[in-house]
Amino acid sequence: MAIFSASLAAKEITIALVGKTKNDSFYLQSYKGCITFAASHPDVQCVYDGAADYQDVRSQVIVVNELAESGIDGLLISISDSAHLARDALQILAKKNIPVITFDSDLLPEHHQYRLAYVGTNNFDFGVELGEAAKAFKHVPLQQICIQSGHQTTPNLNARIAGVRFALSGQREDRLTGQNGWQENDRCPLYSLGRRQDALNQLLLMLQKEHPPIFLAVAGFAQFNPDYADKVAPFKQAISSGKSVIISADTEDSQLVVLNQGLSTVNIGQKPFEMGRLSAELMYQYIKEGKKPAQEFYYLDYHYCRQDNTDTCTTNF
To answer: Please, what is the angle between helix 123-135 and helix 155-169, to 10°?
Structure first.
């Protein structure tokens, strides 16, 4: 069942926003961005939905098809699996003339025909920044690192992994096996599928090692776990001393709390609210005025949060 905006009066235009998961503060911020746009456009209603609990590509397809049947006028979506979604949902939307804008995670290039534009982070560049952040914590000639991701098919997370590898080794395709003094742990990359308990367990497994690798999460799943602070607290001294390093994407409120507590090292954040707001604006202009987006890619910048600037490094909505 979709979550509808507070105003349930009949609207002329209904825009649906679908994240990879529904119970994620990141996508809820994007939804708030859509609602903010709708507040100044009385003919617009925003609808929010997504897979119930984790990155389930089949659930995302089901949600999109149900929304299409409900009569939405446009779809804003963060892609979990490009091929699966294009084949089993977006082709159907195209036949129904329901326009699509992707945000946060884009379709693969071979499926770009199914969307008008992409709004969000340049995910390869974002991965490069995560990798650059890791360089400050290299303290041995052959430094181990463990990259954690969500689903193996998620386009934006794979682009971030490629960016991390490029920053550290100058190439984006292969695992790090010693290039420039960087080596990926044998068990990594780790894929949590967005399951928060799995993500936290994977982090704890690495922290418990005698010589823990730098832990670099290209998404914030472990830190979204409500048990994160309690479970990571025993490693606070190791984090403070630099023996353990946790670098994570995203700067949601829950992440800033644990960063401020010294339970994370660096967080690099995005702008989910603006993703939703700008995507809704572009979709509205297309539906209402027939105006196609002027660009194919609308890249937003990102920000850096450390333990000493958590109160000022970003604004969450």
So the answer is: 40
At 86, which helix (H) or strand (E)?
none
| pTM for the whole structure | 0.93
**DSSP designation for 266:** E
Task: Enter the tokens of residue 140.
Answer: 């041995």
pLDDT of 232-279, one tens digit each? 999 999 999 999 999 999 999 999 999 999 999 999 999 999 999 999
Task: Give CATH for domain 123-269.
Answer: 3.40.50.2300
The answer to whether 3-122+271-301 and 123-269 have equal CATH topology is yes
Q: How many percent of the chain have pLDDT more than 70?
A: 97
**C-alpha span between 220 and 209 (Å, rounded):** 21
Evaluate whether 32 touches 91 at the Cβ level (below 8 Å). no
Terminal-residue alpha carbon distance, the chain = 24
- List beta partners, residue 119: 103, 298
Question: Residues near 163 by Cβ (< 8 Å), separated by ≥ 6?
Answer: 123, 124, 125, 126, 127, 128, 129, 130, 131, 172
